[in-house]
Amino acid sequence: MTAIEQKASSESQALSATLEVSERSSSEADGAMTIAESVFRKIRQAIVEGLIPAGSKISEPELAKTYGVSRGPLREAIGRLEACSLVIRKPNVGARVMTMSTGQLLDIYFVREALEGMAARLAATHMTDEEIEKLRGLLSLHGNEIEQEQGQAYFQKEGDLDFHYRIIKGSKNDRLINLLCNDLYYQMRLYRYQFGMRGHRVPKAYNEHEHIVDAIANRDGEMAELLMRLHIRSSRKNIERLLKDSDPSTTNN
Q1: Which terminus of the chain is less hemmed in, N or C, by CB atoms within 10 Å?
Q2: pLDDT at 12 over 50
Q3: End-of-domain residue from the set 74, 97, 120
Q4: Is 206 left (phi over 0), alpha (psi -120 to 50) or beta?
């Protein structure tokens, strides 16, 4: 291994260790949170990862048994899931995990294109040099993970380990952060987990992320917005193609 390769490996290991510490800190914080908060996060993650499938009925007795909690905290957690639209409750039907029509999903992509483009423009002005370097470090870690998957998978963990989340936070605009990191974030993660983590678009999506960071680092808000909008538009078109390919009604006989 050359000196340059050794340095790159050391930097990658250091970044991984830093992120692992961050994740451990989050886990330790979980111990201090309420039972309802802990159950809310666990069920939310199960929904995002498809362990509780879209459209499935929410059974309080089953969930109480699965997570070892009483009905009180569980109902509070389900109420919070309703508030972020991951669970829908209807009279005389009960609560079910949310489902989206193709049109509703694509509508969210159009909203993301506009709002995340704006977030990237603001991030070019408001992110500190240190925050930008950390963003580059995160992207470097993602690149290493993609290499391990032979360029066929790209899935980001939530929160500060998510490239888009970091840029939205970097906008320093509370209204944008609330809209994108609360109202829409986990709905989008559900579908990004399903469609956005594998396939031929992986290397291209990663390269697009690199160019967005470059524009932010150059303090070029106009370019950062343009690149982010193009990036999300390409993702939307990829989703449209995947949905069309998976729809039997569009298959030629």
Answers
A1: C
A2: no
A3: 97
A4: alpha
Q: What is the CATH number of the domain that holds 167?
A: 1.20.120.530
- DSSP-derived 3-state class of residue 215: helix
pTM, full prediction: 0.75
Asked if residue 13 belongs to a domain, the reply is: no
Distance CA 235, CA 192 (A): 10
The total number of structural domains in the chain stands at 2
Name the one residue in this structure whose structure tokens are 């899931």.
81
Q: Mean pLDDT, to the nearest integer, of 55-73?
A: 92
pLDDT computed for residue 65 by the predictor: 93
Angle (nearest 5°) at CA 217 between 129 and 154: 105
Q: Which domain holds residue 227?
A: 102-248
3-state secondary structure of 169: helix
Per residue in 162-199, pLDDT (tens digit) is 899 999 999 999 999 998 987 688 888 877 766 655 56
Closest CA to 140 of 4, 7, 3, 16: 16
Q: Which two tokens stand for residue 140?
A: 């470097």
- pLDDT of residue 8 exceeding 60, the answer is no
Task: Give the number of other Cβ atoms within 10 Å of residue 209's Cβ.
Answer: 23
**DSSP H or E segment with residue 94:** strand 94-97
SS3 track for 141-162: HHHHHHHHCCCCECCCCCHHHC
Contacts of 210 (CB under 8 A, 6+ apart): 139
